[in-house]
Write a structure and sequence with these properties.
- The chain is an all-alpha fold.
- The relative contact order is 0.02.
- The chain contains 52 helices and no strands.
- It holds the Pfam family MMS19_N.
- InterPro entries: ARM-like (IPR011989), ARM-type_fold (IPR016024), MMS19 (IPR039920), MMS19_C (IPR024687), MMS19_N (IPR029240).
- Belongs to the MET18/MMS19 family.
Length: 990
């Protein structure tokens, strides 16, 4: 033991390797082979040394061992000694303070720490510690001590009263580090709500308020944001009632600022004041608050930008909620008086429906009306009567009146107000919806659309006779040739009506017009009705009806089938109710009908225009796959078991495509498309028999079939099966066998090499996404295949697939295994060989490697690209000329990098800006000119010192582009030139 302690003494005295030594000591103490007291006694010579550096080493060792012991290790007597020791060291020398603070931070969390010990700590700290003279890390340590005390031991220090409060506020007074400030702002509300502020309330507020509004500019390295700081600061300023007298004037004062961000912060603070402080305190400032809010909301100036105006309306709403709490001498007295002020201020805008602020004023009043039923009734009475009495309104006025009445109606419905109960409207309330119905039949789209929007809002309050007219309007519009925007609003009304009046909609609209779907030969009209019916896919009441009508229109005629499948595809993509897809998957549901019909149609070779039509099959495959994807595993298993018998030839028998008859070849080619749609999104927990055989059959079909859709489906299915089911070393032989077979296929001149390349690409992607052990072997093979003059260009698609994420295949939604960051790993593996071979390969195949490099870059961020950027950039620059074939792709890559503000590009601005200018003028293709201009626009994100030398040349050359014959190009030129003109003009936000 003596030997161990002597070694400790020597090491601590020199200050070398204290941490590892203390690790050993702590283990000895925990193992009961050494006591903490013995360890401290061994440090006596060090701790009493006249050399402060040696004493500091001793304190470091003391705290290091202390921190490695559990929080419940020491008994109270031992902790009393430790706290006394730390307090003595705290006042020993100022250089000891950082390490002693760390010791205090750890010991205050210990289980047996007593109130007396905590008081001792702060009695030592308060007279001897000036927080703001310490380093940032040491201040942070002290704030962490305070945080723990606030949350867990505040009652122990409550008796210290103003002295402790003064310690806290003086410690943060002048703090500038954002990381320390966010910590303080988050913990102060807890402290201030639970500690008496007394006569220091104003001083406490002033210390916090000096940071308002937050003046902090984020950088890429910032761990916190300006919004986080601002939000937490506002919570501090409004956390206790004592702050009300200081906070409201502060918010109002800062609202006068010209900076938009200061206005937003002040409005947010004022809103919190209304929400958190006693309404009586708010009442004192009500006139001043309204004066400022009125200037923001009801004036059409730059200061009243939409964001600021919305924030001001939020304050007004909070203020009105506050007023409803105040009880005056008469009921609603305060609220009524304030509403009168608001209505009076709004009156001049309401009288002139063509005024810029007419609709903003209506929106303001609606926000006010949603604060209480009393406010809602008063505002509705004022606005409705004013608008209903307008006669001889012009077209533009009608549009605004409809919009305004729609907004007010929506307010009343949200507040549960019956229109007939509004004073002055007892006999006129029906006029409102009649007004909407009248103008919904107007021929002008600009009138019809707002009327339909207002009708949608009013649907649930329409009378029976109004609903009959409403249904006639909907029927007429569904059948008519109308614009997409009008059809969208019509279907929104149809869906809203179906939500509240299901039986009426079924009886008055659907059943009344269902004969059109059954008998009419007008495919366009049938399409309109079927789309309308499918729009009801969120209502369970109509599930059976939708399923039956869709089934009735499939497989009858080619045009009808294509139209029905398009409607069904849109329905599945856009439906919000997943229960509809479960209904389709139920026994005897739509999925059962589709699979049975197409299996029988393909096998019987019936109606080839429908059952072997690739456009139709694509939609059928999408529908089946989408339904299988969302249903649960038991439902998937049931469907697979039900239909697997029909695919027995592919699932359980070896296929030799060349020996099949023409009929059998056709059947197999189309059946594998249906099989893929079932298996693609099947949960991998559902085990398949004969997976190896199925994979080999899919490769056989994808290789030999002349049907391009069969080749693609079979290739994808092979990839999916490998990803889901081929795991473990025992399957490595299969992967090697597949590779060998495909290599042999490439050498057969009788085969369609394109089919083989597609299969290689899909298997390579499957292995790569999964992170399979054979992945690199297949990627290397793909790299080598790029060099082949016959099919190297086809092989570039493999490198495109490796970076693309497909929504329908080989993703987690399809229950495939997807390795995290797989694209980045592939990029890092292939990029150097691609660049190297591009530089060394002969001209005919060189291009294949360049294309592959562009594809790989397109799927990765700058973080991944940066280590290789110096090698890639010369290739990109080389492509930035009009005569290059891949200039658009290179430009798009450049644009992505510029949008992400890739730092390294800043040093090359002088190299590529002239090339971009040349492309924006010289390219024959509009898309290239537009993307080049977009690149130039994004260049302005870089530093002024780099841009200024180029400014004159860029503006001169862009002026020439203003005569471009394409309007979209000219629009982009104006946008880009404006930005370059203003690069050296600082705006308020900067």
């Amino acid at each position: 033991m003596t030997h161990v302690l002597k070694d400790i003494l020597d090491i601590v005295k020199t200050g070398n390797d204290i941490d590892s030594t203390c690790e050993v000591v702590s283990k000895e103490i925990l193992g009961k082979r050494l006591t903490f007291l013995q360890f401290v006694e061994s440090l006596e010579e060090i701790l009493t040394s006249t050399d402060k550096d040696i004493r500091l080493n001793g304190v470091n060792a003391f705290v290091a061992v202390l921190k490695k012991l559990p929080l419940d290790f020491f008994i109270p007597e031992e902790l009393d000694y430790i706290s006394q020791f730390l307090c003595e060291r705290f006042i020993d020398h100022h250089s000891f303070i950082p390490i002693v603070l760390i010791g205090i931070e750890y010991t205050v969390k210990m289980k047996n720490i007593s109130k007396q010990m905590i008081v001792r700590y702060f009695n030592t700290i308060m007279p001897h510690f000036h927080c703001q003279s310490q380093l940032q890390n040491d201040r942070n340590t002290f704030y962490c001590i305070l945080q723990y005390i606030f949350l867990n031991r505040l009652d122990d220090l409550r008796f210290m009263g103003p002295d402790f409060l003064y310690c806290v506020i003086s410690s943060m007074d002048g703090e500038r580090d954002p990381n320390n400030l966010i910590l303080l702002f988050r913990m102060l509300p807890q402290f201030l709500r639970n500690f008496p502020l007394g006569h220091l309330a104003e001083e406490t507020f002033d210390v916090i308020a000096c940071y308002f509004p937050i003046d902090f500019y984020e950088t890429e390295e910032s761990k916190i944001t300006r919004d986080e700081l601002a939000t937490n600061l506002s919570r501090c300023l409004t956390c206790v009632e004592e702050f009300a007298d200081f906070c409201i004037p502060l918010a109002l004062q800062k609202l006068e600022a010209s900076l938009k961000v200061a206005k937003l912060d002040s409005l947010h603070l004022l809103k919190l004041c209304c929400e958190n402080f006693d309404p009586v305190k708010i009442k004192v400032h009500i006139e001043e608050i309204w004066r400022i809010l009125k200037m923001i909301i009801m004036t059409d100036t730059e200061d009243s930008a939409d964001e600021v105006r919305e924030a001001a309306i939020g304050v007004l709403t909070a203020l009105l909620y506050s007023l409803t709490i105040i009880k005056g001498d008469n009921e609603q007295e305060q609220l009524s008086n304030f509403l009168d002020i608001i209505l009076k201020s709004s009156n001049r805008f309401l009288l002139d429906t063509q005024a810029t602020l007419f609709i903003p004023s209506i929106k303001l009043l609606c926000s006010v009306g949603k604060t209480s039923n009393y406010a809602c009734l008063k505002i509705a009475n004022k606005v409705y009567l004013m608008l209903l009495d307008k006669s001889d309104a012009s077209r533009s006025e009608i549009i605004r009146i409809i919009e305004a009445m729609g907004l007010v109606t929506n307010m009343c419905i949200q507040m549960g107000i019956d229109l007939s109960s509004i004073p002055g409207l007892e006999k006129r309330w029906e006029e409102i919806c009649c007004y909407f119905l009248l103008y919904a039949q107007n021929e002008l789209p600009e009138i019809k659309i707002p009327a339909l929007k207002a009708l949608k809002v009013s649907t649930k309050i329409l009378t029976n006779s109004q609903r009959q007219n409403y249904y006639c309007v909907i029927i007429t519009l569904i059948k008519s040739d109308i614009t997409d925007s009008i059809r969208k609003e019509t279907l929104s009304c149809f869906k809203e009506a179906a939500k509240y009046f299901k039986e009426e909609i079924n009886r008055e609209i659907i059943q009344f017009n269902v004969n059109i779907l059954n008998q009419s030969n007008d495919i366009i009209l049938k399409s309109k009705w079927l789309n309308a019916l499918c729009s009801l896919g969120n209502e369970e009441y109509f599930f059976g009806l939708i399923s039956d009508i869709l089934s009735a229109n499939l497989s009858v005629k080619q045009a009808e089938t294509e139209m029905t499948l398009k409607c069904l595809r849109d329905l599945i993509k856009n439906t919000e109710n997943i229960n509809l897809l479960h209904h389709f998957a139920s026994k005897d549901g739509l999925l059962n009908f589709i699979l049975t019909t197409w299996i029988n149609g393909i096998k019987s070779c019936a109606n080839l225009n429908i059952f072997r039509n690739e456009i139709i099959l694509e939609d059928v495959s999408f529908v089946i796959n989408s339904i299988i994807k969302v249903i649960n595993t038991s439902e998937q298993l049931q469907i697979f078991n039900q239909f697997s018998q029909y695919f027995d030839d592919i699932l359980n028998m070896t296929i030799n495509y060349k020996t099949l008859s023409d009929i059998q070849q056709g059947i197999h080619s189309y059946m594998v498309i249906l099989l893929e749609s079932i298996l693609n999104s099947l949960n991998k927990n559902i085990k398949l028999k004969n997976v190896t055989l199925l994979i080999e059959n899919c490769i056989e079909l994808s290789t030999y079939s002349n049907n391009s859709m069969c080749c693609l489906s079979a290739s994808r299915l092979t990839a999916t099966l490998i990803n889901k089911y081929i795991d473990g070393d025992e399957y490595n032989f299969l992967i090697d066998k597949l590779k060998l077979n495909l290599e042999n296929y490439l050498n057969l001149s009788s085969l369609n090499v394109h089919n083989v390349i597609i299969q290689i690409s899909w298997i390579t992607k499957s292995l790569s996404v999964k992170g399979h052990g054979k992945m690199l072997q297949w990627i290397d093979w793909s790299l080598n295949l790029l060099a082949d003059p016959l099919y190297g260009k086809m092989m570039t698609q493999c490198f495109k697939m490796l970076t693309q994420t497909d929504d329908g295949y080989l993703n987690k939604e399809c229950f495939c295994s997807v390795k995290l960051l797989y694209r980045q790993r592939i990029f890092c593996y292939v990029i150097e060989p691609l660049i190297s071979r591009y530089n060394t390969m002969p001209e005919p195949v060189k291009e294949n490697y360049l294309i592959s490099i562009l594809y790989q870059m397109d799927g990765n961020t700058y973080v991944t690209l940066s280590p290789y950027f110096s090698k890639i950039l010369p290739l990109l620059l080389q492509l930035l000329s009009p005569e290059q074939d891949y200039v658009l792709q290179s430009l798009q890559t450049f644009r992505n990098l510029l949008e992400s503000k890739t730092p390294v590009l800043e040093d090359y601005l002088q190299s590529f800006v002239p090339k971009l200018l040349n492309l924006s003028q010289s390219s024959k293709f509009m898309n290239i000119r537009i993307v080049a201009l977009q690149c130039l626009y994004n260049c302005c994100d870089y530093s002024l010192i780099k841009l200024l030398p180029l400014k004159r040349q860029v503006i001169f050359e862009l002026t020439k582009c203003l005569d471009d014959k394409k309007r979209l190009v000219r629009k982009e030129v104006v946008r880009t030139k404006s930005r370059w003109l203003s690069i050296d003009v600082l705006n308020d936000d900067d």
